[in-house]
Amino acid sequence: MSESRFFVGLISGTSVDGVDAVVLALRNNQLDILACHNEPYTEPLRLAVLSLCQPGASEIDRLGAVDRDIADTFAKAALIVIDQANLQVSDIEAIGSHGQTIRHRPSRDKSFTLQIGDPNRIAELTGITTIADFRRRDIAAGGQGAPLTPAFHRVAFGISGNATAVVNIGGISNITLFDNSDSLVGFDSGPGNTLMDAWVRIHLNQAFDQSGLWADSGQVDEYLLDRCLDDPYFSTPAPKSTGPEYFNIAWLEERLDMLPDAIRPEDVQRTLLELTARSIAAALGSESLAQLAVCGGGAKNTALMTRLSELLYPSHVITTEALGVNPDWVEAAAFAWLASRTVDGLPGNEPSVTGATGYRVLGAVFRG
Description:
Blueprint: E1 5-12, E2 18-27, E3 30-40, H1 43-52, H2 59-84, E4 92-105, E5 112-116, H3 119-126, E6 130-132, H4 136-140, H5 150-157, E7 164-169, E8 172-178, E9 184-191, H6 194-204, H7 213-216, H8 222-229, H9 249-256, H10 265-283, E10 291-295, H11 302-312, E11 316-319, H12 330-343, H13 351-354, E12 364-366
Parallel strand pairs: 1-4, 4-6, 7-10, 10-11
Antiparallel strand pairs: 1-2, 2-3, 4-5, 6-12, 7-8, 8-9
Helix pairs in contact: 1-2, 2-3, 6-10, 8-10, 10-11
């Protein structure tokens, strides 16, 4: 029996609220999350990141400063979670750092993606070999660079057959479908929490709609919902990926401007929740599922989970907790696992998911 190997996974997603960090133990084909930690961004850093997510003035200077500050936050999160796992820095084989996405443009002719959080600084501050820049090799090979988590879902949840799907509802929703072969299907179905979070910040000055209570106080505006679902992204076949560069407040305001009359803010929020639920359900519409396992922040949105259960009945909607992984930490664990693949010289992408021309070893290595 081989000894356990330890990896740290770090990610900040499209919600731009902080760094999720896990310590993952790997032993043979077994995965075990030993510790987890969330290191919040300071409000100035959060706003600085958001300002970089859209074109603006002095971008290169601002990018350099934010790249440094994010790296410092990532390094801090790594050291804290290693301590929580009762391990030493020397026990960690590598850190897998997703970084913070500030642009994701997976168009056919000029595709690119950019994640920041300088891995040189992470390696320097922690003394641990750091693997970063996971997405761009897949894009160079003709893929979308996303989603990268479906391969981890297969390993982590031990699922075979086509009876289960996994959906991560972060800022964007991405779906993994398992079939009876070795191939996977995975894609971004559309907005997850990003529009709801942005709307509740504007109107209630809250980071998110706790349990979906504000949305639950409103009613769906079918005219607005139709204008949203008319977007060509939803009918585009996979492979496909997207981000808040596409689904953002400006996108929503364009559709609000189409309305014949103003509607209550809570009705907009309820409609955005419905958009997330219906776009996920539509993406799964032709599948015969026994269960849908949800991870990410959307798993805590009671109103959203209820609506998914209604739309997908008789499929059973659960969280990944029932499959052995806390829904808050799936993404960070995935990048710890991807780091192990890089260390071992094994591919991390799934061409059937991203559309890449073949399997590729992902990530650049920065020695500790």
